[in-house]
Amino acid sequence: MNLLEYRLLGKTGLRVSRLCFGTLTLGPLQAHLPLEEGAALLAEAYRCGINFWDTAEHYQNYAYLRLALKKIQTLPVIATKTYAYDRAGAQASFEKARREMDIDTVPIFLLHEQESALTLKGHREALDFFLEAKAKGLIGAVGISTHTVAAVRAAAEAGHLDVLHALINYKGIGIKDGTVEDMLKALSGAYKKGLGIYGMKALGGGHLISTAEKALKFVKNLKELHSFAVGMASSEELLVNLHYCQGLKPPPEIEARLSLKKRRLEIEEWCIGCGSCVEKCPQGALSLEKEEPVRAVVDPERCILCGYCGAYCPEFCIKIF
Ligand code: SF4
Ligand code: SF4
Fold first, then answer.
1. Together in a domain, 190 and 61
2. Alpha-carbon distances of 299 from 18, 155, 267, rounded to whole Å
3. % helix, strand, coil for the chain, step of 5
4. What number does the ligand 2 atom closest to the CA of 286 have?
């Protein structure tokens, strides 16, 4: 029996499961599951009632979604994101998403990691491309993703955005410019403006795994969140999260095993100290050692284990376990 809740995602007309499958975990930046295994997990999640999948061009995982779509033979609500800021970049991202997922229309397209009204302004050309594609029926809804309170406020004021994907968890891990209370207040403002809102990093990128039940209850109880994305990389994680989100008790032995899981980022010893990962970390969690041999080091307190830095390492030495 499926006891998952479903909500209309703001004014988009899209009906989404409250539990959204965060697919970052599947691909090369995180678990790097074999293609068939990752696609089978996504298809399994769909059959269990999760009809909302979150991805991004940066995650390099469209192939998993493509194969999962072949398995389920229908189009769930898929949200993807791009760092494009101009028209040509937005068009290239849009075509890549359609080509690599083998879909004609994209349910939701977001500008990835917006920080403020200023960054939103700097991406105006890309946004205009997506709004025009929406008017032609090629995109269902347009919005932004963000780790900042300032961008949530900017989205609420923008007037032309449909969807907001914002970082929120009970400890505020990863919020770049404020507290949990600041973010909740900003989300409330966006909710009142009618935006469709889904949360990001409910488990703090893995830091809250030992208190997963509490962490998911927190986001589930926020009326402002029409849905919340949770990254999953195994059937056991899917099972436990589905239980929590349906108010059920998961099998104790699986729950205990998962709660002990410790996620971490490691930088291999062959790091050449180029610094490209340092510039790209959205949390400022990476730095270069001051003494020879110069290598990147991570501050585990600041790192939210998103794995984004891995895509920028020319030596492939950043791994998330
Ligand atoms: S160090 Fe890497 S994994 Fe950690 S927050 Fe920064 S980009 Fe994400
Ligand atoms: S990008 Fe890779 S090689 Fe360069 S500093 Fe970071 S971890 Fe080292």
1. yes
2. 32, 30, 12
3. 40, 20, 40
4. 6
Q: Which residues pair with 266 in a beta bridge?
A: 319
**187 and 217 both lie in a single domain:** yes
CA atoms within 13 A on the CB side of 20: 30
Ligand 2 atom nearest to CA at 288: 5
How far out from the chain centre does Cα 114 lie?
Answer: 13
The answer to whether the CB of 126 falls within 8 A of the CB of 160 is: no
Digitized pLDDT (tens) for each residue of the chain, 321 residues in all: 678 999 999 999 999 999 999 999 999 999 999 999 999 999 999 999 999 999 999 999 999 999 999 999 999 999 999 999 999 999 999 999 999 999 999 999 999 999 999 999 999 999 999 999 999 999 999 999 999 999 999 999 999 999 999 999 999 999 999 999 999 999 999 999 999 999 999 999 888 998 999 999 999 999 999 999 999 999 999 999 999 999 999 999 999 999 888 888 999 999 999 999 999 999 999 999 988 889 999 999 899 998 899 999 999 899 888
Domain with 37 in it: 6-259
The reply to whether 190 falls in a domain is yes
Cβ of 313 below 6 Å from ligand 2:
yes
Burial class (CB in 10 A: 0-12, 13-18, 19+), 185: middle
Task: Tell me whether residue 1 is in a domain.
Answer: no
- Give yes or no: residues 193 and 47 share one domain: yes
117 lies in some domain? yes
Residue 315 in domain: yes
Q: Which of 259, 276, 310 is the last residue of a domain?
A: 259
Boundary residue ending a domain (259, 278, 298): 259
Q: How far is the CA of 248 from the centre of ligand 2 (A)?
A: 43
DSSP 57: G
Which ligand is in closest contact with the Cα of 307?
Answer: 1
One domain, residues 302 and 206: no
Q: Are residues 203 and 59 in the same domain?
A: yes
Distance from the alpha carbon of residue 310 to the mean position of ligand 1, in angstroms: 8
Instruction: Quote the number of domains for the chain.
Output: 2
